[in-house]
């Protein structure tokens, strides 16, 4: 049986109250959901809390899945991403809101949007671990397209300092484990 058809059948049985179907669905997707939440949040305990929220919502609102919008797996990925972002927004509202506005969400099919979003959120998390001046200089240069001269005016720093912020910020980004792990071929959940 096709994987998505099996998932749809399980969702229908969950709507009808089948504990066994919920357990099968849970076992099939717990690691997938946990991996997504952890990649976005970067904290195992909070990622586990997001998993609980996603599965609780699934129990209460499994009828919300719409097959014409994508696979069950993509639906879960988007739902997990949304819950994870809600947690991040509570902690890092300013940078998240600015960076989220950079990528339109309706240009690709749901599965491609999910992959693009995952990559973008890994980058956002990495940027949030940089010192503030490095993060601002990189954000202005690469996301707002400002020249070094424009950045010096906004940051009120000499040109040499701005170039150093960018250079050291990029070096620090290259060292971050979250970016290195994302680029690795194996993207499975690692404990």
Helices and strands in order:
Elements: H1 3-15, H2 19-41, H3 44-61, H4 72-91, H5 93-100, H6 110-128, H7 132-143, H8 148-155, H9 159-175, H10 177-183
**Distance linking N and C termini:** 32 Å
The ordered string of helix (H) and strand (E) elements is HHHHHHHHHH
Largest sheet: none
Strand elements, count? 0
Averaging pLDDT over every residue, what do you get? 77
Brief description of this entry?
This is RNA polymerase sigma factor. This protein is mainly alpha-helical. The chain is 76% helix and 0% strand.
Structure, explained:
There is one protein chain. The protein has about 190 residues and is mostly helical. It has a domain at about 1-90: Orthogonal Bundle (Rna Polymerase Sigma Factor, Chain: A). It has helices spanning about 5-15, 20-40, 45-60, 70-90, 95-100, 110-130, 130-145, 150-155, 160-175, 175-185. Mean pLDDT is about 75; it is low at about 95-100, about 100-110 and about 180-190. It comes from Aliibacillus thermotolerans. Pfam families: Sigma70_r2, Sigma70_r4. This is RNA polymerase sigma factor. Keywords: DNA-binding, Sigma factor, Transcription, Transcription regulation.
């Amino acid at each position: 049986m096709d994987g998505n058809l099996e998932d749809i059948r399980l969702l229908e049985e969950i709507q009808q109250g089948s504990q066994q179907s919920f357990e099968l669905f849970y076992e099939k997707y717990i690691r997938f959901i946990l991996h997504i939440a952890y990649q976005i949040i970067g904290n195992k305990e909070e990622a586990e809390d997001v998993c609980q929220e996603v599965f609780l919502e699934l129990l209460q609102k499994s009828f919300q899945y719409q097959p014409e919008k994508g696979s069950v797996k993509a639906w879960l990925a988007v739902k997990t991403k949304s819950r994870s972002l809600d947690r991040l927004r509570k902690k890092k509202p300013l940078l998240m809101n600015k960076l989220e506005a950079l990528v339109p969400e309706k240009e690709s099919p749901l599965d491609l949007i999910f992959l693009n979003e995952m990559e973008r959120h890994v980058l956002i998390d990495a940027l949030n671990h940089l010192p503030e001046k490095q993060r601002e200089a990189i954000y202005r240069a690469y996301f707002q397209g400002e020249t070094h001269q424009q950045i010096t005016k906004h940051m009120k720093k000499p040109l040499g300092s701005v170039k150093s912020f960018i250079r050291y910020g990029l070096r620090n980004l290259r060292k971050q484990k979250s970016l290195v792990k994302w680029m690795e071929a194996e993207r499975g959940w690692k404990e």
